[in-house]
């Protein structure tokens, strides 16, 4: 039986852990060749090893790169094309949360750092991948936004601003590139238990972060954290040809957390 990603190449940023790693494993199981990008080489190697356990025949390229550096983004796109000759799917996922603080106390350097990675990095990735996909006449891009991109998030000005920007870029670019056979959408994860979310909880209370986590998800209709692999399943669908007509859209995956918005 043919897999959804047979003969397709999927590029993933932030592939060293969390949502990026989960999506990489899922699309590899379904036949994709992969180009994996992260700033952490050890994390990339770990993801590659996990892929080889479940999909031994998958071709996997790993590239250490800083998504906030436009030259490095251009290089990871070029290296992917040089290796595989195409990019069929792009999970534009790398991001950070940043420090938590009231807006008036939020450091300007911290704000700039978060925006440079979460928003500029997404823009740079789209800029160079769209050039490839437009020429191909086909492709699918999934950007990682957040429930923090469709509502406010207290004490996280940089994160909320950057993720709102990702939503705007997604909708705008989807309008522009649908005519070229490229579909662009964003996911808006809620509380998914990733290393980034764990780090966020530890910022609040490093000694009792698990208890803080229980309190955090209590208002959620499903009253639990999501799992990275649950997001991986959604990303795989959105990157596949089955989701080509989903464009300029933002899809929450949050257990109902954003229901009131």
TrEMBL record:
The keyword Secreted does not apply. The keyword Oxidoreductase applies. Coiled coil: none annotated. It holds the Pfam family adh_short_C2. Keywords: Oxidoreductase. Belongs to the short-chain dehydrogenases/reductases (SDR) family. PANTHER family: DEHYDROGENASES, SHORT CHAIN, ESTRADIOL 17-BETA-DEHYDROGENASE 8-RELATED. This is NAD(P)-dependent dehydrogenase (Short-subunit alcohol dehydrogenase family). The lineage of its organism: Bacteria, Bacillati, Bacillota, Bacilli, Bacillales.
